[in-house]
Structure formats: C-alpha cells, structure tokens
Specification:
Order of helices and strands: HHHHEHHEHH
Structural class: mainly alpha
Helix content: over 70%
Distance between the termini: 54 Å
Largest sheet: 2 strands, antiparallel
Length: about 210
C-alpha cells in the first residue's frame, strides 16, 4: 500500500476528528473544538496537495471517510457529550445521516461541476463545532436541524477552494485569534460564525430570488 502526501493529510484529518470526539467525552470542550478546526485545516491542505500532485488511488476514498469521521460523527458526538440531553440523540443521528448522504452524493457528482450541490459537510461541521463554544443548547439544536437540511438540499454552494475566498479566510482567522486573545472563546466563535452564516444563507437567498422571477 503506497500512501501519498495527501493521504497522510486525510489520516491527520481523521485523527483530529477522533480526538475531538474523545476530548468532548472527557469534558474538554475547547480542546474538542480546536481539534475540529484542525480537521478543517487538514482537509483543506489535503485538497490543495491533491490538486498539485499525482492522483492517489486511495485519496478520494480516504478523504470521504476522514470527512465522515471529522465532520459527520465528531461534531454530532461532541454535541451530545457536551450537553447530554436525551432528545439530542435524535437530532445528532439526523445530522450524522444527512452528512453521510451528502458525502455519498458528492462521490458520484461530476468532477467538472464548479459548485457543490448542498452544503459541504466540512462547513457544516465547522459551524456546529464552533457553536458549541457559545454554550447555547437551543442555538446548537437549531443549527443542527438547519445544517442537516442544507446538506441534503440541492442549493448550489461555491467551492471553498475559490481563490477569492482565501484572503477572506485569512482575515477571519486573524480576527478570530485576536478576539480569542482579547475577549475569550465566545467572541472568537462569533467572529467565525458571522462569515459562515453568510456562506450558509447567501446561496439560499439567491435560489429563492431566482425562483420568484
């Protein structure tokens, strides 16, 4: 079995997601969310390396499996371990299943598509994970339902590798780190969630507007 650089990044993605789950089970909420953010970074790096190097036979399969661990199972499990409300079992299972369906659909999507059909599971996992820092069970529960619906929707989302999004991502990261240092984790979470809310809702608003015309 020959593993390439992008395959190791996918494995690191999965390890980060697994660590996030265990950390949440141990009550280490901030560490859990940090591991989810690390998984997002490894997933992004995996994509960049894969596009600039020789294709790996295992690559696409490892990437999907790692994404299921880190952005399908880990955020749902972390939500349940942190809040431990019985009704969350249903919502967390719904989120996980919608994430699985989203990945399955992506795996059979035409490679030439310039957009994602439905919300990418990586974005859903990031939003759900960061929302845990706000200590609001109603908000997190609501987000899980919305994210689940968006993942299995047909709403077209721009691919996150769009070069126009790179400077925005860097700026958000810098502001989030500054907010973490000056005001704490909740302020940092808000900084991340505001642009992610625009990413989640703008395609939905665009689709609704086009249908009305």
């Amino acid at each position: 079995m020959r593993l390439r650089a992008q395959d190791f990044l996918s494995l690191m993605n999965a390890i980060s997601g697994f660590s996030a789950t265990i950390s949440a089970h141990l009550g280490l909420r901030d560490i859990s969310v940090l591991m989810l953010i690390a998984a997002v970074l490894f997933d992004g790096a995996d994509g960049i390396v894969a596009r600039r190097s020789e294709q790996s036979e295992l690559g696409p399969h490892l990437d999907s499996l790692a994404d299921m661990v880190s952005f399908g199972v880990a955020p749902a499990a972390a939500t349940f371990f942190i809040h431990r409300e019985p009704y969350l079992l249903i919502i967390c299972a719904l989120y996980m299943l919608c994430g699985m369906l989203r990945l399955a659909r992506y795996n059979i999507s035409p490679a030439e598509w310039t957009h994602f059909e439905g919300l990418p599971i990586t974005a859903a996992g990031l939003v759900l994970g960061v929302s845990l820092l706000l200590d609001s069970l109603p908000l997190t529960s609501f987000l899980m339902i919305i994210l689940s619906a968006l993942m299995v929707s047909t709403v077209p989302y721009p691919k996150l590798r769009d070069p126009r999004l790179f400077p925005v991502s860097l700026m958000v990261g810098a502001v989030a780190l500054s907010a973490l240092y000056t005001s704490g984790v909740k302020a940092s979470a808000v900084v991340i969630l505001i642009p992610m809310a625009f990413y989640l809702m703008m395609p939905v608003v665009r689709c609704c507007t086009l249908r009305e015309r």
